[in-house]
Amino acid sequence: MPRVHINNFAVDYTECGQGMPIIFIPGITEYKEAFTFQFGGLRDSYRVISYDLRRGLKRSSDYTLNLLVDDLHLFLKALGLTSAVICGHSFGGLVAMRFALTYPEQTRALVLASSFPSLPEKVSAEHFLNTISSIDDPLRTSFATRFRVLMDRLFRKGTTGALAMEHQVEAVLTVAREAMKTSKTTITQRLNIIKTTDLRPALPQITAPTLVVAGANDNAFFLSSAQEMYLRMQDATLEVIEGAGHFCFLTRHDQFNLAVDEFLTDRLGEI
Description:
- Helix content is about 40%, strand content about 20%.
- The protein is of the alpha/beta class.
- It has a single domain (about 5-270), classed as Alpha/Beta hydrolase fold, catalytic domain (Rossmann fold), CATH 3.40.50.1820.
- The chain has an 8-stranded mixed sheet, with helices on both faces.
């Protein structure tokens, strides 16, 4: 597994393909393996890269959105990249947007999948994670169950019973299994970033061409966030994928990859 050392942090990453680089940033409990279908579907035209975000720190006050953005900046530098397309899913979208605001010259384009610029007031940690798990597609029951097990481990006492295994898609199960190993410290510190971040006033300042992607069956909060980003950004395109929920890049990966490819080809020229 490739690894680079930056900012007192060992970054594990995966890459394949050649061409314009696309950096995929995982969500709050996801890892680089979440983008398996993007590696398979985009590698013929792009250099597809995904990395694991820094885990939680001993001092919660040290774990900030600016730190994660600085990590991404140094990660690109370590790979010898002067710029890239930055794609963030959910929490990863916050990192992507702040990166675009901080390093506009390094952001060739943005892709924001099921992301948001801020949370409504008085949203609890448990409610937010339950919202993420509420995907309205054939995988909803199994995937949401796994997130509820995660919630039990993090915020309640006791354990739950064995999980049903029938009718599973391996890629989605991988994301769920990876989520289960994310520590309470890491999730709590990332949730604190979410609670204290409001990028809405800065949306008009994002100059990079932006593709906003949402699943039509996602929670209403994420759908309204997608519309807000589309309307307030200078140069945004909105793509709503029918039949998809919060994990549209997995459950409708063909449509997602096609939307990304068409957007980049149209906005950045022939690949």
